[in-house]
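Following the same procedure, backbone shapes were mapped to integers, yielding the entry below.
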Amino acid sequence: MAKAIIMPKPGITVESCIMTKWLKKKGDTVALGDVLFSYETDKAAFEEEAKEAGTLLEIFFNDGDEVPCLANVCVIGNSGESVAGFAPQSEQAQPEQAPQTAPAAAAVEAAAPVITATADAEGRMKISPRAKALAQSSGADMRFVAATGPDGRIIERDIRALIDAGKTVHACVDASAIPDSVTGTGIGGKIMPHDLACAELSSEITPSCAEDVTVEKLSNMRKVIAKTMGESLNSMAQLTLNSSFDATELQKVRVTIKEKGAALGLGNITVNDMIMYAVARTLKNHKLLNANRIGDEMHFFRHVNLGMAVDTERGLMVPTIFSADTLSLNEISAQSKALASEVRSGAINPDKLTGGTFTVSNLGTLGVESFTPIINPPQTAILGVCCIQQKVKSVNGEMKLYPSMGLSITFDHKALDGADAARFLKELTANLESFTLLMAI
């Protein structure tokens, strides 16, 4: 008997997935456990194994298609069986309508016609004064405007739709002279002067030079990262404070754990694990940083759901250690390693990539001395962990070398002030310099 194979729902927050590659084709014999296709969300990649044996009778989606979760993607059964009724569109078909309802449906369609922008008798674009003023002040790219006002008139909401979609140009750019092929590289996709220069340069590339250029489309995940980072910078007043602390105590504790930890059942605890432990404890005293700003509301959390930035082949991913403030150092270490392994293998549940209240990003292992991490919205802050450098300080009148570790905190000035972030940074550095005492609390 023919059976449909559905697109899995890999997490409660996931509504659709991208079909990346079919590993079987129509007509192939499928054994139980064979991999049928691979798919991905905006954060993770998966493979779907056959739960039925038989012949692959039909495929409803192609590579690259966005597929709603739980929709039928293919049918497996015996050769010659009918697949009628399995197609996704037939599942979503509306029930048979009574004749008297047809005029009402037609009336609804007639009430919302698709209108394109029109010009008046003198050839000028029809646009309301409010819309025109907003377009001029915001630099809206009028090439993409869709008029929704009466008789093809552009109104204020049409301009706001352009702004929300990132369709804007720099004040120095003549919007009337922009080729359709130009892509903006400014914040939120704004077209900058150098974008036009690059477009002109690329149009002059000779065939011999063009052969040396490899063009690859951005991955689905890279597009999401780009969109999220752009929205973060557009929607927040971000500012970074830099500080450092004496990592002598931290290094001593780690050496002790490496030497004696195995006998006590401790895993391979890293300096980053110790920093995340200290961050989770310190945040409990700074609610403005353990929060989400959503519109004009602040959402405060009773526990610290700590995001940890992980570098993967597919891009930056941020899994969450939930209720990190209640976990021991060993538990945080174990969870961080498990989550990092899951995201790097592409098999993490997307639900584990949501719900963070604060994020830690460590570039110290790459030798970075200071940087400006970008906040993961709607969080209000993110901590950047930098490398250890040998610095000099005065101890009892003598100049001595010590290991100095840098910390960079970026915060949303719309949600908190610089003094709030500075107080958190000061308490955190004190806790890290007295790490043994912190573990005893």
